[in-house]
Structures are given as structure tokens and as C-alpha cells.
Amino acid sequence: MVNKNILRIRKDLDRLDNKLLEIIKKRVKLVDLVIKNKKYKKDIVDKKRILIILKNISKKSRKKKIDPKITNRIWKSMIKAFIEYEFRNFYKK
Q: pTM (2 decimals)?
């Protein structure tokens, strides 16, 4: 049987997950705007920008005392997911 503290913590995690979903929804809308402003499919992947983003996230993570390995993995995964999203939606603009 799961103890009551864990159940309470899990409810907090569920609430936080719902907030993350709202943030992701806002991010999708911004990425949709980016797609509309890109002329060519080859412009979707910007390796320089990706490196800058990952470096900044790592720096900010350390400053906020968050394990940078966690945030790096999350951002790499998110970037990959949004790149795939842009490729799927490029011609639908």
C-alpha cells in the first residue's frame, strides 16, 4: 500500500503536469508562428540556435541548483519533438 505522503505528493505532481501541459500548448502556438515565417523546409533545423539554447539551459539550471543532466535531456527531447512537429506541419501553413 502506498503511504499518504506519497499520494499527496503525486497529486501535486499531477497538478504541476497540468500546468506544464498549458505551457506546452502556448509553446506549440509560438512554434506555429515560427513555421509560418519560415520560407524553406531546410530552415527548420538551426544547429547554432540549438547549441545556444542547450548551453543557456545548462547555465540557468546550475544557477537554479537543478541537475543540468535532467534539463539537458528534457530540452533535447523537446527540441527533437518540435523539430518533428515543424516538419509534419510545414506544408500545412
A: 0.89
